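pasting for ref
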Amino acid sequence: MDFLSTEDIATTKTRPDGMSAGDTIENAKQSATAGSEHDLAKAARAKWFNAFKNVLPIYISIHLAFFVITCLAVLFIIPDFSWKALPINTLWQSWNRWDSLHYTYLATHGYTDWWRTVFFPLFPLLERYLAVLTGDPFIAGLIISNVAGLGVLVVLYRLVEEDFDSERAYRTALYLSVFPAAFFFAAAYTEALFLLLALLSFYYIRQGSWWLAGTFGFFAMLTRSTAILLLVPFCYEYLRQHQFKLKNTRFDVLGGALIVAALGLFMLYCYHRFHSFIPFTRAEPFMWSREPQTPWFLIKNVIAGIAQSNGFLSFHALRNIIDASQILLILALIILAVVGPWRFPRRLWVYAFYGIVLFVILQVNPVKVNPIRGPFPLQAFPRYMLEVFPAFIVLAALGKYRTVHLSYLMVSGAVLFVLLSLFLTGHWVV
């Protein structure tokens, strides 16, 4: 005869509902696990909502300023003491400048010319689909950018809060919002959408959620070509989180392949449409006189643009100075990211690596000297600097000093006001 121990009896004891005590214990464990997961999800939602609450005043204030500037910019168009009044749609049509026209064209007609492939497809596709509701792809583009702009601040805040602290996260969002080129986040350009997707990819890279990181990288790649550089933080952080041992590599490393897949998908479309896999690489020199150059080319032509002007208070001098000062600010911050007391700690080197690579690559295609306009090699570069978000994290560290904080807000805000006024009145701001 087999004898049961007290423990066996407790385990096999049957409850009135037919379940054993062992089943009860197992169910209790599952309930505890489910409860723990629920609590974690609730805490995560609370953090995202807190980020939203903290950045919303920044977003609203900046957009109120943009609205006021848009209204007052009319005074630069109509003559003094004129009884003329502009139609109310001037308020939004004044934002329809430069590249916005290209995206609207693509949303309406598609890729009819090979050189338009320099504008990647996701943004005009979203404009086309949203235009079903708005009736105008340009209005759709404004909505996409402004919604994405809010998303940029929320994700940036969460990213910096996770790796640093909430105070630094707030200043990072604020400083990015008042950067002189930040008004492009509100225009029908790809800046806001791309940075939102890139930040989401970077955030999930830091979280070790490789498939989500790759998915957002996929869509970022369909928005702008520089998304290919997200492979740098993806690969580095994957290796770091796996102790730099290849034997620890898992199947989820293929999440990074999604970024390459997006580029391959667009290349296949280009080949089908124009019998060339990479027509977008030829579009820059063909249409915009952009070609790879050495850093000395940039320095020489910026100096030439200032020296060949008719004086300090001239268009050539001031525009080159404004463009160069923004680039130099970001360069200085990138340097401080790796040297000095404000450098990123070792565990966060991924920020420095991404910032350096992105900054360098963004500088390699300056505009050649135009015989009519003159040397403006940094054309559009200031808005490209919006992508280099690690620089603004460094700036936020410097912002704990009151003089730095106020100086940046005042000077950058003044330049932002001037550039936006020029943009709204049809001047050359791209």
